[in-house]
Amino acid sequence: MAKASANGHHWKFFRAGGVDQVKLASGADILHLGELDQKLWVALSCPTKGLFYDERTLDLLDSDRDGRVRVPEIVNAAKWLGAVLKDADVLLKGEDGVDLRNIREDTPEGAQVLRAARHILKSFGKEGAAKITVADSTQTAELFAKAKLNGDGIVAPDTVDDEAARQVATEIVDCLGGAMDRSGKPGFDKDRIERFFDECRAFTAWWTKGEEDRAVTWPLKEKTADGAAALEAVRRKIDDYFARCLLAEFDARALAAVNRTETAYLDAAAKDMSIDAHEIDFFPIALAEPKKPLSLVQGINPAWRDAIDRFRTLVVAPLLGKDKTSLAREEWLDLSGKFAAYRDWAAGKAGAAVEKLGIKRVREIVAGPTKPLLEKAVAADLAVAPDVEAISHVEKLTRLNRDFYKLLINFVSFADFYGRRKAIFQAGVLYVDGRSCDLCIRVTDPAKHGVLAVMSQSYLAYVDCKRPSGEAMTIAAAMTAGDSDNLFVGRNGLFYDRQGRDWDATVSKIVNNPISIGQAFWAPYKKVLRWIEEQVAKRAAAADEASTARLQTAATTATTAPPAAAPAAPGAPPKKLDIGIVAAIGVAVSGFVAAFGVMMEAFFGLGIYMPLGVLGIILLISGPSMLIAYLKLRRRNLGPILDANGWAVNTLTKVNLPLGRSLTAVAHLPPGAERSLQDPFAEKRSPWPRIIFTLILLGGIAFCLWKSGYATRWWGKIPAPQKTWFKQPYQGEPAPPAAPEKPAEGKPAEEKPAEEGK
Fold first, then answer.
1. In a 3-state reduction of DSSP, which class is residue 3?
2. Which of 146, 298, 396, 534 shows the greatest Cβ crowding within 10 Å of its Cβ?
3. What is the mean pLDDT of residues 627-644?
């Protein structure tokens, strides 16, 4: 059917998957995609990876580089093609090669692409060629990308001519990290140049501030930083020690508590301790006593001995003398105060990004002439940006000319999928369990995919695929025909990808849903058979265990039992069968025969409607299963399978029964094939089960005929039953009662006894 948009463009739609989908039949339809209501698009976005489609084309369409192609990007590409091409109908052909005569010269976009295309052909010695192909444009784009100047505003350090500037460029990338150039190398841009020199100036100013009062700021001169670090490492523990000493001086009762109780030591000693005793690093650094100096050589907590030795070597020895072996509280406070100015200066550090270069090198960079040279290199790279952009537009045109229509019929509509052509999301064909599955989709996270894909109401098998080369991938295969009796985790198969390569395939996960109504029809009977098999197996196992137990008991009794009693006297009567067992067997047989008779009586009572009775029994058994399967199959939907893989499917894309049968093909002999039914290994069937079944069936039928009275009518010699289970056949009106016999004249009538007739 056709539908006109607000501006008068007429759209054509086709019905597939229960949804009206737009039919892109001309170049005008493509150019007017921006006017098509987005509610009518089958998909709103798709990933740029994992599809059987040229990834480079998808990357060119993905303008925001987020790894997804959305509706606005498709619409913008269509508008751009309208500004470049004279006749958009060529897009439907999907040919590799753009005719230069079809490129517009009356628009800025077309004129730019045409000039660039002619320049490319000329550079390859093809001046005057009528067409430019994807290979021509791609090769040129790669050459420009690897060129010294490629127009992206990012310059690799090794392309800088001046040696001093090249060294600074390397240091910029080292300190700030590099931006990725089109050539694939890390480089610097204008923003990084500004940030780097700002950091250098800030670092220089901060360092100069520290130099204003060297004696105060750097008490250990060039070793002040190491000394300050050593002091900071023990500051908290030494402050804690002197605080405990003050507490013990305040109250002697606190002495035991501040030095940790014996229980704490017992807990630590109960464990295996390491060589550095870090298990007790939270204990005091030394035993506290009132007014006791901190010894630096003995009585130190083993966990802190190395830190104290470093502190003594780097701080105490240079400032208080090498012979200093202990610290009083006042000495500690004075020593710690000497580093206060350094701590304040270090806290205001600026330009940390370039600190590793050192102040000397940073001052050389700030004073040098390299910044203008680096800015000039970036400007030169940006100067060729229009030419490079034009080259990239030529590549974009050649790729869209070849691939755009293919994407549209897998995005705006699913014409490829419903036309039974390979859609771009179909990864290949899986052969497993005597069938081939066409609806196979590549997935990266089966666990995450299965959470949403279960909403598709489809039977999905997640399959791990591997090649001898080590390549591996996982696919989700939809089983839409056949049955699932022999499908299970661990089942092996063979997968062929879109390139025709074969992969070893192993089922790793199954999402169970109905496959077909035929499978649902037989499901109840198969369940009953499986239940019977399980019960027989259980009873056989139980009987085997019981028999084994009896044998073991008998063997044990035989070795320990007393001498056997004398045999029974000759002529003693054998033990009789329990009458209760006989009665129970009789009741069971009678009940079975009676139930079978009732069913057969009701069945034969249907008369000419007996076939309907058979159909009713079948529907009673298989109907519920078939109904549930039908309800699920009519909701079978492709959308959740694709949504779980990164798509945004916008409509209900049904996979009905006819489409499902075409997506999964079961094994059939080829037409004209010869088939021999002689199987040398076929099992020989015993005739007795069929004979017994036939006899039981005939006996049941005879019993029902006798009970119903039909046998009496057909064969008069058979006595009729005294009681029937249903109405006897009609035998005419009953005869009137006989008249009483008249007595002879002159003779009185005989009197009947009073009891007669009672």
1. strand
2. 396
3. 78
Write down the residue that tokens 């913008």 correspond to. Answer: 76
Number of alpha carbons in the 13 Å side-chain half-sphere of residue 613 = 12
Distance, CA of 493 to CA of 465 (rounded, Å): 9
Bridge partners, 441 (sequence order): 476
The single-letter DSSP state of residue 754 is: T
Q: Is the dihedral of CA 430, 436, 441, 445 positive or negative?
A: negative
152-181 residues labelled b (16+ CB within 10 A) or e (exposed): bbbbbbebbeeeebbbbbbbbbebbebbeb
Average pLDDT of the segment spanning 199-211: 91
Judging by beta carbons within 10 Å of its beta carbon (0-12, 13-18, 19+), is residue 660 exposed, middle or buried? buried
54 burial class (0-12, 13-18, 19+ CB within 10 angstroms)? middle
At 708, the pLDDT band (50, 70, 90 cuts) reads: low
**What integer pLDDT is reported at residue 563 of this predicted model?**
55
User: Tokens standing for 672?
Assistant: 């004209």
Amino acid 294 reads L
- Kindly list the distances between the CA atom of residue 76 and the CA atoms of 69, 109, 138, 571, 739, in Å, as whole numbers in the listed order: 11, 13, 22, 111, 114
Mean pLDDT of the chain: 82
The answer on pLDDT for 684 being more than 80 is no
Task: Please count the other Cβ atoms lying within 10 Å of the Cβ belonging to residue 13.
Answer: 15
The Cα–Cα gap between 101 and 118 comes to 11
Q: ∠ at Cα 540 (537, 543), nearest 5°?
A: 150
Tokens of 381: 């790279």
Give the H or E element holding residue 22.
strand 19-23
pLDDT tens readout for residues 42-70: 999 999 998 999 999 999 999 998 999 99
- Fill in the amino acid letter for 561: A
Residue spans per domain, the chain = 2-150+384-418, 157-212+358-383, 220-338
Tell which residue, 201, 205, 290, has the closest CA to residue 242.
290
Helix (H) / strand (E) element for 132: namely strand 131-132
Q: Are 55 and 48 in contact (CB under 8 A)?
A: yes
**362 neighbors 204 (Cβ within 8 angstroms):** yes
Rounded Cα distance between 275 and 283, Å, is 16
What CA–CA distance (Å, rounded) separates 409 from 716? 81
- CA–chain centroid gap for 536, Å, is 40
Residues 86/63, Cβ–Cβ less than 8 Å: no
User: What amino acid is encoded at 173 in this protein?
Assistant: V
Unique residue bearing structure tokens 């945004």: 648
User: What DSSP letter does each residue of 135-200 carry, written as one string?
Assistant: HHHHHHHHHHHHSS--SSS-B-GGG-SSHHHHHHHHHHHHHH--EEPTTS-EEB-HHHHHHHHHHH
- For the cut 50, the answer to whether the pLDDT of residue 481 exceeds it is yes
**Interval 587-618: pLDDT, tens:** 655 665 666 666 666 665 655 555 666 676 66
Contact 413, 23 (CB under 8 A): yes
3-state secondary structure of 428: strand
Residue that the structure tokens 């052969």 belong to: 431
Integer Rg of the chain from CA: 48
pLDDT at 457: 84
Give kind and range of the element (H or E) at residue 463. Answer: strand 459-466
For residue 352, what are the β-bridge partners? none
Residue length, the chain? 758
